[in-house]
Amino acid sequence: MLDERFVILGAVAATAGTARYVWATLTGRAQPNRVTWGCWALAPLVAFAAELQEGVGLRSLMTFAVGFGPLLIFLASFVNQDAYWRLGAFDVACGVLSIAALAGWALTRSGVVAIVFALVADLLAGIPTVLKTWSAPQTEEPILFALSTVNAGVALLTIDEWTTAQAAFPAYIAVMGVLLTAIAYRRRWVPCST
What we know:
Helix content: over 70%
Order of helices and strands: HHHHHHH
Mean pLDDT: 86
C-alpha cells in the first residue's frame, strides 16, 4: 500500500491530461461530447462531496480531479464553436438518465448511495463518448484517459480499508480509462472494420 499522499501525484497526472485535452479542444483537434463532459464534471463532483461526507479524506482528491478536469473541458468546448461533437437523441437520453441517477442520490442523502448513483450517472454519461471514440478516435485526446487511469490506479494503491466509499469511484475510473485509452489508440493505429 502506498502512502495516501501519493494521490497528489495521481491528481497531477490527471491535471496534465486535462491541460492537453483543453488545449486540443481550444485548437479544434478534440471534439468533446458536451453531454458526456458536462455530466462527467457533475457526477464526480457529487461523488467527491459524498466521499468527504463519508470520511474518505485525501484519497477523494482523485475524484475531485476527475470532476474538475471535465468541467474545464466542457467550458472549453464553448470557446471554440467547432470543437464539440454534434449531439443526437441518444446523447441527450444518456444525459437525462445520468442526471436522473444524480437526482436519485438527492432523495436518499446517503454518502454511499451518492457514490453509487454518481458512478451510474458517470457511466451513462460516458456511453456516448465510448461510441464516439470507437467511430471517430481522431476527435479524442486519449492521453487524458491514460493519465486518468494512472490517477485512479494510484488512488487504489493507497487504500488501506476497502470500502465502497474508498474504492468504488477509483475502480470505475480505472476501468473506464483503460477502455477509452484502448479504443482510442487501437482505432487510431490499427485499421479496424466498423
